[in-house]
Every structure is written in structure tokens, then in C-alpha cells.
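Researcher: We're teaching a course module on how sequence relates to structure. For the next exercise, students receive a sequence and then see the predicted structure as C-alpha cells, so they can try to spot secondary structure elements on their own. Here is the exercise chain.
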Amino acid sequence: MRSNPIISLFALLISAPGAAQRDDVNKMAVMLDRNETSMTVGRVRYDLVGTDKPDLSDPGSLLLRVARASEIGWYVRVYGHEGILVMTGMYSDEALTIAEGVFTFYHMSGVVESTGRFHMGVKVGVWKRYDERGNPLLDRIYNERDPDVEVMNVCGWTISCRP
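Model: And here is the predicted structure for the students to work with:
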């Protein structure tokens, strides 16, 4: 019996993000075992980050930042120490200090916390926000000329994403 190629492709697309996430999180264990705070594999950079300086003796205080180089910048995902996705977004610079484009932040439960756009490192436009159960909250509107946000250079995401 031949399998349906469309169904096979669909199954691959559904399973790929989970496999990539598991692979990313496994890198965190490797870095902790080696007592390292960063490593590069091909075009992907893995960094253990925290609010200030990563404390390798306390894995619960660490986040894993995964930065993949692309033609238009660096696609970044940030995971909590248990592999929970905390943030996705794009940076225009290799130092990961200038956020650019659509970002999504997640509650520790995995539910979307907020989504919106950055331009040259500043939140702009309408940001959709949600509570822990996924219920919509009031939108926040950011004006590019009068930003209401502080971007953390150390970790490469906004303060609001810290667990």
C-alpha cells in the first residue's frame, strides 16, 4: 500500500518544529555538561542567558537563546530551562540588539502572552496581549517616536518576557 505524499508531507511539517525544539533544548544540556555559556553549530548560535550573568550552577535561572542566521537577519527563539518556548523574533544585527519585525512572547504555560512588531529595536504599532488562558487583553499601542519600552541588550528581548 502506497502512502499519500501530501499526508506524509503534512506529518513531517507538524513534527519538524517539535524535533527542532528538542534538538535546541538538548544543546542546553550539552553546554551545561561542558560548563560553557555558548556554542555554534553551522549557522546556529546557542547562548545560555539570564537577567544578568548566566549562573551555570542554577539551571533554573537560565534561558537558552537560539539564533539562526538568515539572509535578512537572525531568527531567534528563547526557551526556558525546561524547554518551554518563551520568545520568537528576528534581529537585524549579529549582536542581537536590534529587534526587527514580528515578535511573539509566551507565558510559561506555552500560551501566547503578546505579539507585535519591532522597528529598529523599538515596539511599534498594535501589540495583541493575552492572559494565561489565551483570553484577549486590551491591546497596547506603541508610537515609534515615543516608545514605551526598554530593550535589554544583555538578553536580546524585552523585559516583559522574563519568567
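Model: If you want an answer key for the exercise: The radius of gyration is 17 Å. Residues 32 and 57 are 9 Å apart (CA to CA).
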